[in-house]
Write a structure and sequence with these properties.
This protein is α+β, with helices and mostly antiparallel strands and about 700 residues long. It has four domains: about 180 residues, Beta-Lactamase (2-Layer Sandwich); about 150 residues, 2-Layer Sandwich (Beta-Lactamase); about 170 residues, 3-Layer(aba) Sandwich (Rossmann fold); about 130 residues, Helicase, Ruva Protein, domain 3, CATH 1.10.8.60. It has 24 helices and 21 strands. The strands form five sheets. The chain has a six-stranded antiparallel sheet, sandwiched between helices. The protein has a six-stranded antiparallel sheet with strand order 9-8-7-12-11-10, sandwiched between helices. Helix 10 packs across helix 11. The longest helix has about 50 residues. The protein is elongated. The termini are far apart. The N terminus is likely disordered.
């Protein structure tokens, strides 16, 4: 390194600057070795270089490859300078940019005449800089940028000064290279440390998730794991409710909340942080939570609880977005984007666990449902009813039973006709129990008891997601009855729009569940019942003619009880024994007058009405004699069937007179027989005009 090429002609005083230069360069080398931090190096460098070269400031300008700008990274000044630290200029507008591109030093000695680099020159003029020298900072590995020297004197630097500054920068470039390598290594080490902590956290959470299916307990464990790496004050788990199209808080971990945020709180998706994260399927970072940005009830609750910032992260499952994981703080701007990235990974794990928990819950519900269906299929039918319960010996009933025995051996469709309460379901059970399908199940469906919108699902079943609220697959009654018998009660109430699908299922023995394209084949024997006139419904176009003919293969007409009055005493004794045994009562005698009255009654409600009356009588009979409330029967039902029509008042009067005569005129005894209070009976006698003379006139 020869700063003075003609040293033989240089006097001793002229060698002093060269000696100072060499000494300064040695000091620069030492400073680089002892100052790995660039800021400390440049601060020390300024003082050492000023011993050789006079300048007002020097700075380090680095190239940013991401934005392609030149940025002032370090600045050391001996005089007031208006150049701001971290100043950024496009490469083409910066002297340092020109030097970085061309890899040549650049000397600006006349600022008044300089027309290039307008933004930079303007700032230099404002700082009264007259001479500006820029040297590239380059090593064999990297082109970093440039070091700039500024002086407020015109033509402040001699040729030897320029060479000295170039040599200094060449050494400083090595220091910059080492500093960046050191910083890169430290950054990499920090990143490795953070990665290690993150993987440790994710592993810990994963181990926690596989051990817990209960959502509140799962959230508490996850929140505890996160708190070891990321301090927070509140966490919650929100799940989407497709039926209500809302979010529901299923778990909360908020020790400082004092019950402000509660589980099972349901809130709309709109206008809430969780709702936005759920709708967009993107994490949401809120540095300042306010009710204007998110005007919802849940936001008010969070703010009331002291929540000021938070992260809301979507839980994306296998097939759908399940809800959100929410992590919040009582401090504003508590979380960074790096925290969001970490919590997003946690949310991915939690989503899998929540999906599994919901799946297990659904499986448990399905198991319960299947158990109930199994119980229904195996026990419900035979535990309460059987063929032996068809009571009666009248010719009308025997004719029906002969028809049942005839058709039961076939697989033909049977339509059971008759009034309400005649026992049509009992006949259907008899047909099934006498058929070759008796070892399989009889599945019943009351078409009038199911809402129109749900009848199709009940009959054919549905797949999960087939309609709003279909959160699980459902097996329809038609599929449950495979190899058995399907009994459709009140078949006349099937909606007209559903009848073609039922017709196809009956004819082809196949159908599809709602929401499915998979065809299911079944082997089902159909028995239907109705109290309506299907032929008239066909004429009125409220029942399909083709379906009527498909059902009306073998009609069975069940007679009303008024046409088989001879069976009334048998039915009375049967129902008395049945209900007395169930209630723990002991009924030994049924008064003859009571039996005559019951046999003469019109029974508009048929056998069902008779059973209800007998059940009430057993309840009202504390002793061994059956106490039938005949007055109540007269007041609540039409008059008995007699050849001469009677008014309700005359019928009731006749009942009371008979009871009084049977009690030899003792009102209290007659009141017990009639199932009413003595005062009530006296009031009824006064109203009906019953006198003692009339009582014993017959």
């Amino acid at each position: 390194m020869d700063l003075d090429k003609d040293s033989s002609r240089t006097s001793t005083p002229e060698r002093v600057p060269a000696v100072k230069a060499y000494a300064a360069l040695l000091e620069v080398a030492g400073s680089i070795a002892s100052h790995p931090e660039l800021s400390a190096l440049f601060h020390d460098l300024q003082h050492r270089l000023l011993k050789v070269v006079k300048f007002e400031f020097l700075n380090l300008v680095l190239h940013d490859p991401d934005q392609n700008v030149m940025r002032v990274s370090l600045l050391e000044a001996a005089a007031p300078i208006t150049i701001p630290l971290s100043l950024e200029l496009p490469v083409q507008d910066s002297p340092a940019g020109w030097v970085w591109q061309h890899q040549q030093p650049l000397l600006l000695e006349d600022m008044d005449q300089e027309t290039r680099f307008a933004p930079a020159v303007r700032l230099l003029r404002e700082s009264s800089i007259r001479t500006f020298y820029v040297v590239p900072v380059t090593t064999a590995r990297e082109r970093y940028g440039a070091i700039c020297f500024g002086s407020q004197r015109e033509r402040a630097f001699s040729d030897s000064d320029l060479r000295f500054m170039e040599q200094t920068v060449a050494q400083v470039a090595l220091g910059v290279d080492a500093a960046f390598a050191h910083e890169s290594a430290r950054t990499y080490q920090d990143r490795l440390g953070k990665e290690h902590e993150r993987f440790r956290l994710l592993l810990e959470i994963n181990n926690t998730l596989v051990r817990h299916l209960d959502l509140p307990e799962l959230l508490a464990q996850v929140s505890g794991c996160i708190r070891g790496l990321l301090q927070h004050d509140y966490s919650s788990l929100c799940l989407y409710d497709p039926v209500q199209n809302q979010l529901s808080i299923h778990a909360v971990d908020f020790p400082e909340g004092h019950g402000v945020i509660r589980q099972e709180f349901i809130f709309p998706i709109e206008d809430s942080p969780a709702g936005r994260a759920f709708s967009t399927c993107k994490p949401l970072l809120v540095n300042h939570l306010d009710a204007q940005t998110f005007p919802s009830k849940v936001t008010e609750m969070l703010i009331k609880g002291g929540i000021r910032s938070g992260c809301w992260l979507p839980l994306v499952g296998h097939e759908r977005t399940l809800g959100t994981l929410n992590v919040c703080s009582l401090q504003e701007s508590r979380f960074t984007q790096a925290d969001v990235d970490l919590l997003s990974q946690v949310a991915n794990q939690v989503a899998i666990a929540v999906d599994n928990a919901l799946a297990f819950r659904q499986i448990a519900e399905l198991k319960d449902e299947l158990a109930k269906e199994k119980s229904y299929l195996e026990d419900e039918i035979r535990s309460e009813y059987n063929f032996d319960e068809i009571v009666g010996e009248s010719p009308a009933l025997k004719q029906v039973l002969d028809q049942v025995r005839t058709v039961a051996a076939t697989d033909s469709t049977v339509v059971i006709l008759g009034e309400t309460g005649t026992g049509k379901e009992l006949i259907a059970r008899a047909i099934h129990d006498l058929s070759r399908r008796r070892d399989r199940t009889l599945v019943k469906l009351n078409c009038a008891a199911i809402p129109t919108g749900l009848l199709e699902s009940e009959l054919f079943g549905h797949e999960r997601g087939a309609f709003t609220g279909a959160i699980a697959q459902k097996i329809g009654r038609l599929e449950l009855a495979n190899k058995g018998t399907l009994f459709l009660d009140e078949v006349g109430d099937i909606p007209l729009e559903l009848q073609p699908k039922l017709l196809r299922a009956l004819q082809e023995q196949e159908f599809e569940r709602l929401g499915s394209t998979h065809t299911i084949h079944v082997d089902v024997r159909l028995v239907v019942a109705t109290n309506r006139n299907l032929e008239q419904m066909v004429a009125d176009h409220t029942f399909r003619q083709d379906l009527f003919y498909r059902l009306n293969v073998f009609p069975v007409q069940v007679p009303p009880l008024r046409d088989r009055t001879g069976d009334v005493p048998l039915l009375v004794h049967y129902f008395v024994n049945k209900h007395a045994q169930r209630m723990g009562r002991h009924i030994e005698r049924i008064p003859a007058e009571t039996m005559r009255t019951l046999s003469r009654w019109h029974w508009p409600g048929n056998v069902r009405e008779l059973e209800n009356i007998i059940e009430r009588a057993v309840i009202l009979s504390p002793g061994p004699v059956l106490n039938v409330p005949l007055a109540a029967l007269a007041a609540s039902t039409p008059p008995p069937h007699t050849e001469a029509p009677q008014t309700l008042q005359s019928s009731e009067k006749e009942f009371i007179l008979r009871a009084l005569r049977a009690a030899n005129g003792v009102v209290s005894t007659a009141a017990v027989q009639l199932g009413m209070k003595r005062t009530t009976l006296n009031a009824r006698m006064r109203k009906l005009g019953i006198s003692r003379a009339e009582l014993f006139s017959k």
